[in-house]
Amino acid sequence: MSADKSVNKVVLAYSGGLDTSVILKWLEETYGCEVVTFTADLGQGEELEPARKKAEMLGVKEIYIEDLREEFVRDYVFPMFRANALYEGVYLLGTSIARPLIAKRQIEIAHETGADAVCHGSTGKGNDQVRFELGYGALDPDIKIIAPWREWDLTSRTKLIEFAEKHQIPIAKDKRGEAPFSVDANLLHISAEGKVLEDPAEEAPEYVYSRSVSPEAAPDKPTYIEIGFEKGDAVSIDGEKMSPATLLTKLNKYGGDNGIGRLDLVENRYVGMKSRGVYETPGGTVLLAAHRGMESLTLDRGAAHLKDEIMPRYAELIYNGFWWSPEREMLQALIDKSQEMVTGSVRVKLYKGSATVVGRSSPYSLYSEAHVTFEEDAGAYDQKDAQGFIRLNALRLRLLAARNKRVEK
Fold first, then answer.
1. How far is C-alpha 17 from the geometric centre of its chain's CA atoms?
2. Cβ–Cβ contacts within 10 Å for residue 352, how many?
3. Is 4 marked active-site?
4. Out of 182, 236, 325, 354, which one is annotated catalytic?
């Protein structure tokens, strides 16, 4: 591809790994443009200073490395958890929810530095290219978008390494061979795809898991924790107030130590194919159980059931990359309205892969012991009222049955 002189400066989402280092050099060669690197700390658990050193070595003048963990959990993870969002019934959307924040910050940096383009390292087969680019488009409709994996001819690991060696880009020793699987990580989860996981009939080897012990190896004694909520968001563990990122970090430790949060899933990608992924979301799994426990006490039946009805649509929007869409924001307003009284505390039992709610209390509880007791209820509920209620609800069924009886004769 010949150089496109219309691009003067590009903000690259940069990890410091082989792929994005090759992309950095390829951008300079192909577009003849200046490259700004942006590396986000979303709690992936890796040291980010090597990314700075590598960018400096490759001649980058403007290098952004930012700790976005608190913003990530506060403004993205927690709003999503207010909805109890699960894609295809099980996936807690750990990769999906990180992309809107990265895209937002890339666009902001482009504006700060006068860049006219942004670039991501997602492949042409996956969901992330969609998520990034829908975000870019929503936040700056005029920004130019560069997706190297859809443009270049470096179509294999061998070609990438040859390009790196030609341009004296350092290659980690473990990258010279085929990686056993591809990993994405942040504070909410870690995912693994590809290579040893490509056959969905084969059980994932234990070495794929890095954030949790196996349920079999978890302690034989349960762990109990109490999670405090305010307006649908977790704010404390065992009475200790914590920031969003600190709280999720601690839940990850509790969950991981007890073998909680593993998921082996064949999912439907937005681009059309099925893929097999292995996910670990220890803290998120505990948080979901606790949040639903809090809602069970404080949400009205109609509100709770409506939330459950819209949840798959909300989850699908996030999975498909539509975080910045008006429909996601509309659903978010509904969800946030439902959380006004979701305040109190939930006791959770963690044991060998399971997070079970065993107690819940709230100053806004809708639970009335006087109404549900099996003992004398002192007139709180007149059981005779149920007769008319049942007769009216049965009326249409009785009319239907009578009609069918006539037709059968």
1. 22
2. 16
3. no
4. 182
Identify the bridge partners of residue 346 per DSSP, sorted by sequence position: 227, 360
Question: What is the pTM (predicted TM-score) of this model?
Answer: 0.94
Span(s) in the chain for CATH 3.40.50.620: 9-69+95-178
Question: Which of 15, 19, 122, 276 does the annotation list as catalytic?
Answer: 19
311: left (phi over 0), alpha (psi -120 to 50) or beta: alpha
Average pLDDT, the chain: 94
pLDDT of residue 117: 98
Contacts of 185 (CB under 8 A, 6+ apart): 43, 44, 45, 46, 191
User: Which one from 15, 96, 128, 131 is the annotated catalytic residue?
Assistant: 128
Strand, helix or coil for residue 71: helix
Strand partners, 357: 348
Q: What token pair was written down for 126?
A: 């996956």
Q: Encoding tokens for residue 5?
A: 């002189």
Q: 285: exposed, middle or buried (C-beta count within 10 Å: 0-12, 13-18, 19+)?
A: buried
158 burial level (CB within 10 Å; 0-12, 13-18, 19+):
exposed
Q: Is residue 19 annotated as a catalytic residue, yes or no?
A: yes
CATH topology classification for 9-69+95-178 = Rossmann fold (3.40.50)
Beta bridge partners of 39: 65
Q: What is the pLDDT at residue 180? A: 66
pLDDT class for 3, splitting at 50, 70, 90?
very low
User: Superfamily for 183-299+341-361?
Assistant: Argininosuccinate synthetase, chain A, domain 2 (3.90.1260.10)
DSSP label of 76: I
Q: Which of 99, 211, 262, 276 is catalytic?
A: 99
Q: Which of 99, 132, 97, 100 is nearest to 117 (CA)?
A: 132
The β-bridge partners of 268 are: 274
Vertex 186: Cα angle to 270 and 212 (nearest 5): 105
Catalytic site includes residue 99: yes
Looking at the chain, the domain(s) classified CATH 3.90.1260.10 span 183-299+341-361
Instruction: Give mean pLDDT, residues 239-260.
Output: 98
Q: Which residues contact 403 (CB under 8 A, 6 or more apart)?
A: none
Helix (H, G, I), strand (E, B) or coil at 115: coil
Tell me if residue 365 is catalytic.
Answer: no
In DSSP terms, 35 is beta-bridged to 10
Query: What is the C-alpha to C-alpha distance for residues 85 and 278, in angstroms, rounded to an integer?
Result: 18
Distances in whole angstroms, Cα of residue 105 to Cα of each of 66, 375, 387? 10, 59, 60
